[in-house]
Each structure stands twice: as C-alpha cells, then as structure tokens.
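ARCHIVE CARD
CATEGORY: sequence design from structure
SOURCE FIELD: tokenized fold
FIELD CONTENT:
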C-alpha cells in the first residue's frame, strides 16, 4: 500500500518555472506511478501574514488560507520540502509558512504523558530537497549546512518527524541538460520509493 505524501514547494517564485518546481514534479510523478497518494502545497501561491508576536504564535488564529495546508500535513505520512538556498537557509516566505502552520497544538504541545512539549507529528518521515549555486559539498562541509540543520532539528525534529533525509543539489546555475536530467531521474526514483 502506498504512502500519503505531502509535497511542500517552498520556492517563493509563483511562476512555477524554477528547477525546484521541475524536481517536485518529478518526485510527484514517481510517487504517483508507484501507487502513493500525493498532495501539493505551493507556498508561493498562498496569501498569509507573518507572525510578529509570541502571543500570535501561541494563541492566534491560523489564517483561513493555511487551513488546507495544515490539513494536508496532518494527513501525510511523509513530507517532502523543496526550496532554494538563500543566504545559507530557506527563503523567508517558507520560514513564515512553517511558523504559521507548525503551531502549538498542531505540531507540538502538551503530550498524553503530561510533558509540556509533546511531539505531535510523530510517525511521519521527511525529505528536504535543496537547490543551490555553490557545490553541495561546500555547503555541507565548509558552511556546515547550518540552515539545513536548523530546519531538521529545531522544526521537523522538534515536532517528532523522523527520519529526515536530504537531497542537496549544487551548482544549479552552471549545470547542463544532462545534469538536470540526472537530478530529475533521481527525484523520480525517490518519489517512487516514497522516501
């Protein structure tokens, strides 16, 4: 039986013409061909405000425009996040989306054991697909992938999502058609495996 997969397209360009969109499409095609159910959340097409206070985060109302996205994340067994590396981490729009959607009471909160920070998204896995202009090894080893680690530990892991896998795609501006075809094939295979 296939998995329930939510793809979160985090590129802030709503045109759909970026490499990340093609990669997400390849992943979705591979997943659907293998019998997985797929839902797409395109963050650039959602209209929502940024959170500005702790009170808004803890007890504010989730914007109506994000209710479907939160429902899809709750439905999913596996999350796949796509985004370009901007200033060493995810674009601000994706961070603002995660702050809105991964709120107390949905992503974490009092657990059944009485602990105040129960992980409410346990049982889900994730893959993070990041495109970048620099070599992926340079980001991982020289810059120590700090933005990626922050997302893995302080957002996804904090909510109980595990395991978390990574696909880092570097040198995208300098790539040729053959390299892009290899990346698309890799993402189709990952989608087919539901990983």
């Amino acid at each position: 039986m296939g998995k329930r997969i939510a793809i979160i397209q985090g590129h802030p360009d709503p045109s759909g013409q970026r490499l990340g969109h093609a990669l997400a499409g390849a992943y979705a095609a591979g997943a659907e061909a293998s019998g997985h159910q797929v839902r797409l959340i395109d963050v650039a097409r959602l209209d929502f405000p940024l959170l500005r206070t702790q009170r808004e985060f803890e007890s504010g109302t989730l914007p109506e425009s994000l209710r479907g996205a939160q429902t899809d994340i709750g439905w999913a067994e596996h999350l796949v996040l796509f985004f370009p590396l901007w200033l060493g981490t995810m674009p601000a729009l994706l961070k603002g989306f995660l702050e809105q959607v991964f709120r107390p009471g949905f992503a974490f909160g009092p657990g059944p054991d009485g602990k105040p920070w129960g992980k409410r998204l346990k049982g889900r896995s994730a893959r993070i697909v990041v495109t970048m202009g620099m070599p992926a090894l340079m980001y991982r080893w020289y810059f120590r992938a700090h933005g990626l680690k922050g997302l893995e530990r302080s957002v996804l892991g904090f909510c109980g999502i595990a395991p978390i896998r990574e696909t880092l795609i570097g040198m995208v501006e300098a790539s040729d058609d053959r390299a892009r075809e290899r990346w698309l094939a890799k993402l189709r295979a990952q989608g087919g495996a539901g990983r």
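CARD ANNOTATION: The chain has a mean pLDDT of 95. The chain has one domain: 4-193.
SHELF: design records, drawer C
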